[in-house]
Each structure stands twice: as C-alpha cells, then as structure tokens.
C-alpha cells in the first residue's frame, strides 16, 4: 500500500537531501508500514510503499474499453449479436453485450449454448482478455467453455478454454489469453453448471495504451516485485505438440510423458512398476539458459520424487545443473520450485530420478523449466505534489539474487510530469535493511529541468537479465 506523506510537524528541518539521518527516517517509515501497515506524518511531501497489496505501482497490463459497442438490439448500433436460442424477446443475445447490468441473455433450453458477435465486414479486433458477468442465478454461467475467433465464420481458432469454474451471484471474472491476430467473428461456447446458459454481460478487451510496468512479477506471499521468468515447456497436448519433444525412460501402460506438462493436475505421468527410477525430459526447439524448474508430485506420497539431478544435454553427454536429495513427498499436489546458477544454454533438459518414496511406481503430475527473467521496468503510480518540486530523493529496499552492479544492472529514475520525462539518479548502497535486503538511496535528483508538473513517479529498470527483487520504495520531493 502506498502511503501518502504530507507536510507535518514532526521535524520541520527535514529535507529531501538524504543525509544519514534522513535515510534512517525513510527506512523507519518503510519499516512502519511493513510492520504495521500504518500511515505516518513527515515534514516533506512524499510516499512510502511496502508493496503489501500490489497497489502504488503502475499496472502490468492496461486493457482497452470493451471493443463491442453497447448493443441496443441484435443488430444495432453496429455488428450482429446472435445466440443458440433466446428464452424471450426480453432476453435476447444483445442483452449480453449492452454494457448494462440487471438484464441478461438466457437460452430457451437446458444444456450447452452459445453466443456470437460479428463486428461486420471490414471490422476486426485483437482481444487479449474477456470479462464475463454471471446473473443473479449464477448456475447458468459457464462452468466450462471456449472463446474462439474467426475471419470467415466457419473456421475457428480457440483463444481461451475455460474449465472448473464456479460463480457467485452477479460475479465478474476476467480471463486473459495470448493473441496477436485480429478477428471479425467471436464465438462463446458455454457449458453451464446446471439448467440453461445465461450471461449478464460479456466484454472483449484489447491491449490499451498508457504507462505500464514491464516484465514484472508480483509475489503476494512475500510482498515483492521481481523480474518475470519465462516458461520453457508449452502446454503439451502430445509428446511433440505444440512444439518440442517430451520423452521418458519408460511409460506405464496408458501413460505418456506429455501428461507431466499439460498444465493439468488431473493427468499424471507414471513410470512402470519396478522400473520407477529413470528420467523425464523435454527438448525445446531453441536453447535457453534455464535457472529454475518446478515439480508437482501426484497424490500417492510413496510415488513422489525424493532424489534426482536436473541436467542439460551438451551434445554428447549430460551436465548436472542441480542435485536434490531427501525431498518431501508428504504434501501432495504442492508446487515446489528449485533454483540454481547457470550460464549455459541447453535445448534439452531432464530430471534424472534416483529415488522415490519407496513405491514400485513413480508418478509426476507436472514439471516446468524456466529461463532468464529478462529485465523489468517497475513504474510507480502517480502521486500529487502540492507545488511543482525541483528535486526529489528515493529509497528502495533491494534484494539482489545474483551479484549486481548499481547503476548498471539496476537504474533509478524520477519524473514530475507523470512519466513523460524522466531524470536518472545515482543509486548508492546505504547498508543492510535485513539479512537479505539492502537499502539503496537516490539522493537529491534535480528535476527542475523537466516540464513543470506535480505528478510524481519513480521508475526502477533492471538490466542484463540479473534476477532482483524490490520490497519497498520511499519517494520524497521539495
């Protein structure tokens, strides 16, 4: 939570020039909101943010407004709405696209149903998210279904598959998906929990414009932002689809390797009885520098992995990148992540199993490999100063996961015009905040040359694919 700090009476001599005392006060402010989530008063304008609720930071993605116009009939003001059936004239297809709550589309029969929207000749949209609102009787909302796009009305591409959903009355859910193709037609296939389908509102959202944080992952458990990491293995539908190759030392009858990489805990790879120790591998189409992997054991503890090595294939043999022993299998379906230092790119990686929990079979529900993390740009929300400031200082709580060089691998900036113009400051290590986190200061950054403004922001940029975490920020101006 970002706590605004306004002019107060605690210490009228405090300035934004970060002396040792001023840095200590800034850190005390951050400790206060971290420990107590409480506000405080300072003599200078500023904010402190402990990142406890992911507010205070510009969003990772900005979506457009609904690209479907607010419909007033099935064919007005533009495009065409249609459905598998309509219960009454007051519950027609367009009611799901009218940007109005309180009315809805209801199918005339129980079971599955569908809605479709046609933007019309020459009009296409490139959505990356869909928002669905259930009715006051939510059993008609999709328990499962698909969202599809088409440019001819007959050949359809699935953009998003829904499954395992439950809804409360009038609940709104947003579903995101990766899409770069513009389509004219959109089809919404609905499998309700019971009875006939009903939808109060559907909105299609494209990527919007605006200042966003880039390649940034928020950890809600420990309240920090970090460089996002990239999954190596796609959602597999066979051992060779959609790309790359899954392989194992042996499959039990009815089991296949790709079931350990289909992003479903309902399927599982099983090694055959008395051949339970072996390996599970994935070969990508391009090499990557993997530094992290994930394992989810299945529901029988004795069949879970206890000891293994994680290896990369060098063209003639296997390089051991990580070794694990005595790992627990008692918490079933628990996601376990393992990280290690690696600078070599491999196309093929495997988990080479040396021990399980003692059963004749070995089972794995899911695996995933991760590379990089890339470089993140973390941009704060806008905070309003009373008058246009001429200088600003900042303090950041920074946890380097690998060795970093300040002002090379991490850079800091301040803006007074909402992020249109940025001035880089010099980051200085001011000591330890705790056993893992350092205090970085950026002192008296001159922003007088920026266009006059009172919309304050800070920005942190990481570089050179160095994994780093930010646990809090303090910004002051005068």
Structural commentary:
The chain has 478 residues and is mainly β. The chain folds into 3 domains: 2-59 and 376-477, Jelly Rolls (Sandwich); 63-207, Galactose-binding domain-like (Jelly Rolls); 230-371, Sandwich (Jelly Rolls), CATH 2.60.120. It is 4% helix and 42% strand. It has 1 helix and 34 strands. Strands 1, 2, 14, 15, 28, 31, 32 and 34 form an 8-stranded antiparallel β-sheet that branches. The radius of gyration is 27 Å and the shape is flat.
Instruction: Please give the radius of gyration in angstroms.
Output: 27 Å
Tell me the domain tally.
3
Structure summary, number of beta strands: 34
What percent strand? 35-45%
> Sheet with the most strands?
8 strands, antiparallel
Q: What is the first-to-last residue Cα distance?
A: 22 Å
By CATH, the topology of the largest domain is Jelly Rolls
CATH architecture of the largest domain: Sandwich
Overall average pLDDT: 85
Question: What's the helical proportion of residues?
Answer: under 10%
| Tally of helical runs | 1
**General shape:** flat
Q: Provide the structure class.
A: mainly beta
CATH class of the largest domain: Mainly Beta
Low-confidence stretches: 1-19, 36-44
């Amino acid at each position: 939570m970002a706590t605004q700090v306004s002019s107060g009476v605690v210490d009228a001599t405090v300035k934004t020039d970060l002396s040792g005392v001023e840095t200590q006060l800034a850190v005390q402010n951050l400790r206060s909101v971290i420990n107590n989530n409480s506000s405080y008063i300072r003599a200078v304008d500023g904010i402190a943010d402990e990142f406890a609720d992911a507010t205070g930071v510009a969003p990772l993605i900005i979506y457009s407004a609904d690209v479907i116009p607010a419909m007033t009939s099935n064919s007005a003001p533009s495009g065409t709405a249609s459905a598998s059936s309509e219960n009454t004239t007051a519950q027609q297809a367009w009611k799901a696209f009218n940007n109005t709550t309180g009315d809805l589309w209801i199918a005339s029969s129980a079971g599955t149903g569908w809605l479709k929207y046609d933007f019309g000749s020459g009009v296409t949209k490139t959505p990356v998210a869909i928002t669905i609102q259930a009715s006051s009787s939510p059993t008609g909302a999709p328990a499962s279904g698909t969202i599809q796009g088409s440019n001819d009305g007959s050949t359809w591409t699935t953009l998003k598959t829904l499954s395992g959903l439950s809804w409360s009355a009038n609940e709104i859910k947003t579903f995101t998906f990766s899409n770069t193709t513009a389509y004219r037609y959109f089809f919404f296939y609905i499998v309700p929990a019971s009875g006939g389908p009903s939808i109060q509102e559907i909105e299609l959202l494209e990527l919007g414009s605006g200042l966003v944080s880039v390649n940034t992952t928020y950890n809600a458990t420990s309240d920090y932002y970090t460089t996002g990491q990239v999954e190596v293995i796609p959602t597999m539908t066979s051992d060779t689809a959609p790309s790359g190759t899954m392989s194992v030392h042996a499959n039990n009858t009815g089991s296949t390797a790709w079931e350990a990489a289909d992003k479903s805990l309902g399927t599982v790879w099983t090694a055959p009885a008395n051949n339970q120790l072996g390996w599970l591998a994935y070969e990508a189409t391009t090499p990557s520098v993997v530094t992290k992997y994930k394992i989810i054991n299945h529901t029988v503890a004795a069949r879970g992995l206890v000891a293994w090595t994680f290896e990369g294939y060098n063209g003639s043999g296997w390089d051991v990148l990580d070794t694990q022993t005595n790992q627990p299998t008692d918490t079933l379906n628990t996601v376990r992540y393992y990280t290690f230092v690696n600078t070599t790119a491999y196309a093929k990686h495997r988990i080479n199993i040396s021990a399980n929990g003692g059963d004749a079979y070995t089972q794995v529900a899911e695996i995933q490999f991760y590379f990089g993390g890339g470089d993140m740009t973390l941009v704060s929300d806008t905070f309003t100063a009373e008058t246009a400031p001429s200088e600003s200082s900042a303090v950041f709580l920074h946890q380097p996961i690998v060795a970093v060089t300040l002002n090379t691998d991490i850079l800091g900036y301040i803006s007074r015009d909402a992020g249109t113009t940025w001035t880089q400051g010099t980051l200085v290590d001011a000591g330890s905040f705790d056993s893992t986190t350092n205090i970085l200061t950026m002192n008296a950054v001159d922003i007088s040359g920026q266009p006059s403004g009172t919309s304050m922001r800070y920005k942190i940029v990481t570089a050179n694919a160095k994994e780093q975490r930010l646990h809090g920020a303090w910004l002051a101006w005068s």
